[in-house]
């Protein structure tokens, strides 16, 4: 016979005790069943208990349906507001969660959970809401309640700093978390990510080794190790780490997607395709895997044909999966990249509202390229209103106003954007571009220096820095980055190394070494960094001090051969073919040519000064045939006519034993070998093997110093 009395024979208080006992035991289905009949007799405690049981059973929506009437009856019941905050946060209803946490803090200002909950809700809302982001920062600056677990507080501060891209603050907070007892996985990965974003790659590598010993089976650390290898441009190591992640955590899409990217950078396209197919076999046809496979041809290729193949794949994907809405904005961006504006306009008409922020910005770019300024401005103003916590609508609105001839409005928008996002480097570069348009040299330099302080450690910003410096050269304005950063905050080691070298271009796509420098964030600038030039012409130019370079009568502005292509400058005497970074002319062709010639003349004077100083190592390579030693000696002699410069000539070699090797073949003259160039006979165009170029530069620098 059972010792348990039937529920109907229990004393009146027993059902309440039974519900409390089920809750204490964590038996949430039983607790929900026991709290339900007690709602009338114990309205606050039963509503709180039933909502909690439902939430912890995975039914947060049902929990909120219970809490709504209960809060209307008992608006001062703090336990109900606590459950409302927890359930709303779980469901992603951040405004409701914020309101509930505030109600708790009004009555219980030292409540640790409410303090952290509000900060977390504001941080999450701040991804799109500027006001929430600013308020989260204000809350983070207040003294924490005495009862608050310092580990939880530092972790939340670190997450907030990451969202604001304040990587030094994130690093300090994650360090504080790691110094306290408790789980270390998130903090370890956060610390490594912050060090990587700060450009402190050597320190990140050392910390990774120590943390990996403590957390040997952490998939999160493996992923961060792979991203760290990518930041060092060490694609073999990155591929190995992604493969290890797929082995230990096969359900993570990043292992397949980013692993395929690493394989593409190694030139192993077939293996990359296999990697993504394996991901689909394991995880199914996830949208992110399908999109990654469609975009694979453009991962490590520079040429137009690769983008055309991406477009064809995206169109095929949409025919097969017309409901895959994520593919349409990606296709729109690629069509714009190719200059296929009519096709882009037809596609844009199929994009349903509401538009996500990146899609709105891309659609505005379509209108910009078509010269439809009112439509572009309307889209960007709407995007800035709907996504005030995202900087790019602000940036593009100011830039578009400037291009539309509304200079005063552009300046006002740029100032407002910088006030909203004071640590966003691209906005500082925009301020420099606007100052450049009004030929305000002091303002250009001031904005440039601030931008460098903010993005010197981020190689992704190097192209924008390069473009601005290239354009500023048209004003005769030399923008340098040296000696402007506080002690101990200089450029990363590889960036400093790559800035010791100056490119002399090369035969067929001479910008390859410039791209390799750019991958490490190097901000050197010279006449031939973005230029193609054959050896005979280079020898003649060195012998004649590049006479006439930058004169209008000796320079031609070549229109793109294909829609959406880039305008190029050609020197008619030496055949120097130079990038302009312009896909649309900002003014009359004659005025653009005049400004471009001013730029080339300034770069010519700069190169002659670099040659005379002899502080740099000059680099040259030919893509389609090997340089002979006699040619290398002639080129070095031409350099030595100007000053004590050193020369590194680079060859492509079939011998693996020579790859990455540098040897001295004369005083101040070196030859290095790589497995391949970005372009050579029999291969499609690809990105330069940046790690191989960096290895050559390391060895050449060691030989120079030794």
Strand content: 5-15%
Average pLDDT for all residues: 85
Helix content: 55-70%
The neighbouring-strand order within the major sheet is: 1-6-7-9-8
Distance between the termini: 93 Å
**Overall geometric form:** elongated
Structural class assignment: alpha/beta
Number of helices: 33
Tally of extended strands?
Answer: 9
Catalogue the unreliable spans. 1-12, 482-490
Instruction: Profile the largest sheet.
Output: 5 strands, mixed
Cα radius of gyration in angstroms:
30 Å
Topology readout:
Layout: H1 14-24, H2 28-35, H3 43-56, H4 60-73, H5 78-91, H6 94-107, H7 112-125, H8 130-141, H9 150-163, H10 167-178, H11 185-197, H12 201-214, H13 219-231, H14 235-248, H15 253-265, H16 269-283, H17 287-295, H18 304-320, H19 327-338, H20 341-348, H21 357-369, H22 373-386, H23 391-403, H24 407-420, H25 425-437, H26 441-455, H27 462-472, H28 493-498, E1 501-507, H29 512-519, E2 531-532, H30 535-543, E3 555-558, E4 568-571, E5 577-579, H31 589-613, E6 617-622, H32 629-640, E7 646-652, E8 662-666, E9 669-674, H33 690-705
Parallel strand pairs: 1-6, 6-7, 7-9
Antiparallel strand pairs: 2-5, 3-4, 4-5, 8-9
